[in-house]
């Protein structure tokens, strides 16, 4: 795709003001996110100074946004049991099409920064369709400490 064909989308966010993303960085959540089912489109924002964290900002609700992280960067043994039906629902046919992220809960106290490994966000990187899965895997819960995992 040439630069002339790049389609930019601009939306507002309460915390970050006017935000512009490439259409290719917009995720479509056909069912929304649990608790936020009405909101289907989110911009995936990556900034160098916030790496490895990314922002997931709603295109429709300026007050709605999340911080996400690729859990494999911290928990290399993270292996969520995601059902074949869930993957097929996103149109994922091969592992190369799958990206997995988790929602991070921030805190002013570093030891309280946690990641939700029980509810991974799965993305079809070809279509940018996404879904937050809810695992029934007792190994994972909603508040894994990021600091403690790095220290351990």
Explain how this protein is built.
The longest helix has 6 residues, at 84-89. The chain is mainly beta and 152 residues long. It is 8% helix and 34% strand. It has two helices and eleven strands, in the order ββββββαβββββα. It has one domain (3-151): BH3618-like, CATH 2.30.290. The strands form two sheets. Strands 3, 4, 5, 6, 7, 8, 9, 10 and 11 form a nine-stranded antiparallel sheet that branches. The chain is globular and about 40 Å long. The chain has helices at 84-89, 146-151; strands at 8-13, 17-22, 26-28, 41-46, 54-58, 65-69, 98-105, 114-115, 121-124, 129-132, 144-145.
Overall body shape:
globular
Q: Detail the poorly predicted runs.
A: none
* Pattern of helices and strands: EEEEEEHEEEEEH
As a whole number of angstroms, the C-alpha radius of gyration is: 16 Å
Structural class call reads mainly beta
Distance between the termini: 44 Å
Question: What's the CATH class label?
Answer: Mainly Beta
């Amino acid at each position: 795709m040439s630069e002339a064909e790049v389609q930019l989308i601009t939306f507002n966010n309460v915390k970050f003001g006017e935000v512009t993303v490439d259409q290719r960085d917009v995720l479509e959540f056909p069912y929304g996110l649990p608790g936020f089912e009405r909101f289907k489109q989110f911009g995936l924002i990556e900034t160098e100074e916030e790496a490895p964290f990314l922002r997931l900002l709603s295109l429709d609700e300026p007050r709605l946004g999340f911080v996400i992280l690729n859990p494999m960067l911290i928990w290399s043994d993270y292996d969520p049991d995601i059902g074949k039906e869930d993957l097929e629902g996103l149109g994922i046919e091969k592992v190369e099409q799958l990206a997995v992220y988790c929602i991070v809960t921030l805190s002013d106290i570093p030891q309280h920064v946690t990641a939700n490994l029980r509810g991974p966000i799965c993305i079809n990187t070809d279509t940018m369709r996404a879904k937050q899965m809810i695992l029934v895997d007792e190994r994972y819960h909603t508040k894994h400490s990021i600091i403690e995992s790095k220290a351990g």
